[in-house]
Amino acid sequence: MLKRNTPSWYGLVQAAEVLAYCLGVGLFLSQGEKIFQKFNYVLAPVLMLVLFSVSALICGLLVFYRPYKFFFDGKKKEAIDIVLATTAWLFFFMLVILLLVLGSNPR
Question: So where are the chain's domains?
Fold first, then answer.
C-alpha cells in the first residue's frame, strides 16, 4: 500500500487524473457523430486542433504543476521523483488498457 504524500502516491494520483481526463475526451470523441450530426468541414479540423492544444495544456498542468511547486520550494529530488512516478504509473495504465483492448478484440 502506498503512503500518502510520497512521490509514488502523487504519481498515482496525477496519472489517475490524466487517465480520467483522457477517458472523458475519448467518450466525447466516440459520441462525435451524435453530437455533431452535420458539421462544418472547415471548422472540424480547427476544433480538433484546439482540443489537442487544450488537452496538452490540461495534461501538462496535471503532471507538472505539483512538481513545479516542489521544485521551487527547494525539494528538487521530490519533484523529479514525482515526474518519474507519474510516468511509470501512466505507462502501467497504458499497458493495462492495451491488454484490455487486445483481449476484447476477437480475431
Answer: 8-32+40-98
